[in-house]
Write a structure and sequence with these properties.
mainly alpha, 112 residues, cytoplasm, rod-shaped, chaperone, TBCA, cytoskeleton, microtubule
Length: 112
C-alpha cells in the first residue's frame, strides 16, 4: 500500500511539473509574439531609439526562454512517460485519477 501511495504521489508531482512547464512554454510563445507586434508598432510610429532597444531586449529575453523551457518540458515529459509506462500494468494504479491525469497531460503535450 505504501508503494502504491508513493507511486501515486510521484505521478501527481510529475504531472504537475509537466503541466506547469507546458503552460510556461505557451506563455513565452505568446509573450514573444505579442512583443514582436509591440516592436513593429514602435518602429512604424518612429518611437525613440531607447524604447525600441528596450522592446528588442524584452523580445530577445522571451525568445531565449522558449528553448530552455522546451528542454525542461521534454525532460519532465520523458520522466512522466517512463513512470506512466512502468505503472500502466498495475490495476491498483491505472484506474486512479492521478494516472488518468498523467495520461491526459501526456496526450495534451504530445499534440502541441
Amino acid at each position: 500500500m505504501a508503494d502504491t501511495a508513493s507511486s501515486l504521489r510521484q505521478l501527481k508531482i510529475k504531472t504537475g511539473v509537466v503541466s506547469r512547464l507546458f503552460k510556461e512554454e505557451q506563455t513565452y510563445r505568446t509573450e514573444a509574439a505579442d512583443q514582436e507586434k509591440v516592436l513593429a508598432k514602435l518602429r512604424d510610429s518612429g518611437a525613440d531609439g531607447a524604447d525600441i532597444r528596450n522592446a528588442e531586449r524584452v523580445l530577445k529575453d522571451s525568445e531565449q526562454m522558449i528553448p530552455r523551457t522546451q528542454k525542461s518540458l521534454q525532460e519532465a515529459r520523458d520522466g512522466l512517460k517512463d513512470l506512466v509506462d512502468a505503472l500502466g500494468t498495475e490495476d491498483s494504479i491505472n484506474a486512479t485519477d492521478e494516472y488518468k491525469a498523467a495520461v491526459a497531460i501526456l496526450d495534451k503535450v504530445g499534440q502541441a
